[in-house]
Structure formats: structure tokens, C-alpha cells
From TrEMBL:
Pfam families associated with the record: Thiolase_C, Thiolase_N
Domain Thiolase C-terminal intervals: 271-392
SUPFAM superfamilies referenced in this protein's UniProt entry, alphabetically: Thiolase-like
Residue span, Thiolase N-terminal domain: 5-262
UniProt-recorded name of the protein: Thiolase family protein
Family: Belongs to the thiolase-like superfamily. Thiolase family.
Highest taxon of the lineage: Bacteria
InterPro entries the UniProt entry points to: Thiolase, Thiolase-like, Thiolase_C, Thiolase_CS, Thiolase_N
Keyword Acyltransferase: yes
Keywords: Acyltransferase, Transferase
Length: 393
């Protein structure tokens, strides 16, 4: 059975996902195309060897519609015979892209694949409600009479169920910024970030990291997701705690990973950096929504034959601070190994690109520390989660 290895993993800097953000002037096709180009140039790979390009994107509308991965392949100047497809596993889209790429290699269907992702949140509105559309239909409305809800309310339900205080949420968020700022200052992100040229200026730093963030400052922010409708539906939520400060910000960004069989890497004279060890994906309660990472982690550890303490780093996406804190409480994991270079609260959450960002950050941390195993897991809209374990080689 072929072994799927990671030859390289990169990402763009994180831009604020609103007009005026550093990456807003760049069309998302061009943002992803530039990332694809940087990836093959770093390895010296002839893009004609690619069997497929699998891209993640959540808001596949407007400038991100009509198979953005294929459009980016053409924009990058890759040979026309290189195919591409765009997938949507919500926030885990590019993590799922990497999983599909690795599984295709393990199955013998591929030799060389790029898994990638992109999201220009400054250009595309979040959710179909903003477009005046109903994505659910009558059957889902009948199954969930109150209707499915936004992730912010789910984050409140998670905080309430696990007894997580506002102070704990803000402390976690402040720590994310502190860790990310320290990592950036030390040059820890230098090997994963590829610059983006915007109007003649090279953007190289994450725009979303706020080094001066404090718990005291975060405590002044008002809850962001309380509404009369939500309060009436969930009367148990008497103490609303999720704010813009302990949530991930709207973000623009792209990521990409070069994945191939170990045999092919040898033939091409390329050195693998890690191999894919185990995968899991699960569905979960679409109302609570954000807790699937707990079951996905248990499932992937069982498949891997490993315990939580066997892992050297955990990258758990910080969609909201309540999510990794609930994960910590359920898994008994070491908090010092959790997002040691900061997480999405500081580094941003460009939806379709976030899985690739987590992969790149985790891989570089393993190499810097001499660690062996890394876990990444991501909660996803409407109740899903992916988990992946890689092993440094």
C-alpha cells in the first residue's frame, strides 16, 4: 500500500476579512493561484506531473464560484491537462482536501496532488441569508422545527454546557494572541508564509494578530450573538459570553500542500517532511454543532492506536474559544501542546483555507521541536468534524 507524504505546506498571510483588509484587493482566484505557483516553485515540481488539485472553499458564490480550484490552476499557468475540483466541508474544507488527496494516493489512484483552499471573506458575505436564499428546504425545517442556528449561538451553548466562564474564554483568547505574536517575532512562521503582492507591496505578516491583547481589554467587549429570537429559543442562556474578542475574525487567505506517494517523492528527489498516519470524519448534532471534534479525536486516536499523550502537538481550530476549551476538558490533553503558536483567534480563520493553515503550522512546529506526531481537528458548520494525525519523517 502506498504511503502518502507531505513534501511542503504553505499559506498566505492572514488578511482582515473586510474592505480595507490587506488582501481585499486580490481576487480570490489570483490569491489561490499565487499560492499554487509558490508551492511548485519551492519544490521545483513540474506542474505537468500533477494528477489533481483539490481545493476547499466554503462560500462558493460570486467571485468564488464556478470551481475556483480549476480557475486557480488555469490562472497559475499550469498545463491545461491538470484537473481540479472544489469541495465544501465547511470550515474543514482544505483539511478534507488533504485527506482526499492522501487517500487517493494510498488507494493508488494518484501519485502527485495539491490540496489547497481559499476564502476571501472580505468579498463574499457569510451565509445564504445574506444572499436572500434558503439553503435548507422544508424537510430540514420539519426535522429541526426551530431551524438551524448560527455558529455563534452554538458557541454560547458549548460554553454553557461545559461551564466555561467569560474569564476563561478571554484568557484563552489573549493567550492565542500572545503565542502568535511571540511565534511571529521569533520567525516561526517564516517557512510557511508566502508573500502576496498587493499594488506593488509585499504582504508578509498576519494582519489579524494583535500583540497588545489583554484579558482586561477583552473584558470590555459586548457579547456578539445575543438576539431576542435566540434568547427566546434558548432561555438557559442567561449569561452570554461569546464576543468578537474570543472568536476568530473574518479573514482572507489561501493555503496549499504538496502531497505525493513516498515512492514518487524518491523518484523526483524530493524529501518528505511528514506522512499521513490516520484520518477520521464524523457528523454531530447540527444545533450544538461545534463539538464533533471530540468524537473525531477519539475516533482517529483509536484508528491510529495512539493515546492523547503520545501526540506532540494539537492544532484545534479556534473558531470560538469555547470550542478548544471544551475539547481540552473532554480529552484531558496537555494545554501546553494545544496551538502552541497561537490559533485562529489570532491567526485568522479564512474558512476554506484554514485546514491547510493548521497543517502548515503544525508541520513546522513538529520540525522545530523534534516532535513525532501531530493532530489537527476542526469543527464544521451544521455539525461535522475532521481529525488528522501526521507523523514527522
Amino acid at each position: 500500500m502506498p504511503t502518502a507524504v507531505i513534501v511542503d505546506a504553505i499559506r498566505t498571510p492572514s488578511g482582515r476579512g473586510k474592505p480595507g483588509g490587506a488582501l481585499n484587493p486580490v481576487h480570490p482566484v489570483d490569491l489561490l493561484a499565487g499560492t499554487l505557483t509558490a508551492l511548485v516553485e519551492r519544490s521545483g515540481l513540474d506542474p505537468a506531473l500533477l494528477d489533481d488539485v483539490i481545493g476547499g472553499c466554503v462560500s462558493q458564490a460570486g467571485t468564488q464560484s464556478v470551481n475556483i480550484a480549476r480557475n486557480a490552476v488555469l490562472a497559475a499557468g499550469f498545463p491545461e491537462h491538470v484537473p481540479a475540483t472544489t469541495i465544501d466541508r465547511q470550515c474543514g474544507s482544505s483539511q478534507q482536501a488533504a485527506t482526499f488527496a492522501a487517500q487517493g494516493i494510498i488507494a493508488g489512484a494518484y501519485d502527485v496532488v495539491i490540496a489547497c483552499g481559499v476564502e476571501a471573506m472580505s468579498r463574499n458575505p457569510i451565509g445564504f441569508a445574506a444572499l436572500g436564499l434558503d439553503p435548507y428546504g422544508k424537510a430540514i425545517a420539519a426535522r429541526y422545527p426551530g431551524g438551524l442556528i448560527g455558529q455563534g449561538v452554538s458557541a454560547e451553548l458549548v460554553a454553557q454546557r461545559w461551564g466555561i466562564s467569560r474569564e476563561q474564554l478571554d484568557e484563552f483568547a489573549a493567550r492565542s494572541h500572545q503565542r502568535a505574536a511571540a511565534a511571529a517575532a521569533s520567525g516561526a512562521f517564516a517557512n510557511e508564509i508566502v508573500p502576496v503582492e498587493v499594488d506593488g507591496v509585499s504582504i508578509t505578516d498576519d494582519q489579524t494578530v494583535r500583540p497588545g491583547t489583554t484579558v482586561e481589554g477583552l473584558a470590555t467587549l459586548a457579547p456578539a450573538f445575543r438576539s431576542d429570537e435566540a434568547a427566546e429559543r434558548f432561555p438557559e442562556l442567561t449569561d452570554w459570553k461569546i464576543t468578537p474578542g474570543n472568536s476568530s475574525p473574518l479573514t482572507d487567505g489561501a493555503s496549499a500542500a504538496l502531497i505525493m506517494s513516498e515512492r514518487k517523492a524518491g523518484e523526483l528527489g524530493l524529501t518528505p517532511r511528514a506522512r499521513f498516519h490516520s484520518f477520521s470524519v464524523i457528523g454531530s448534532d447540527p444545533i450544538l454543532m461545534l463539538t464533533g471534534i471530540i468524537a473525531a479525536t477519539r475516533k482517529v486516536l483509536e484508528r491510529a492506536g495512539l493515546g492523547i499523550d503520545d501526540l506532540d502537538v494539537y492544532e484545534v481550530n479556534e473558531a470560538f474559544a469555547s470550542v478548544p476549551l471544551a475539547w481540552l476538558a473532554e480529552t484531558g490533553a496537555d494545554p501546553d501542546k494545544l496551538n502552541p503558536r497561537g490559533g485562529a483567534i489570532a491567526l485568522g480563520h479564512p474558512l476554506g483555507a484554514s485546514g491547510g493553515r493548521l497543517l502548515a503550522t503544525m508541520l513546522n512546529h513538529l520540525e522545530a521541536t523534534g516532535g513525532r506526531y501531530g493532530l489537527q481537528t476542526m469543527c464544521e458548520g451544521n455539525g461535522m468534524a475532521n481529525a488528522t494525525i501526521i507523523e514527522r519523517v
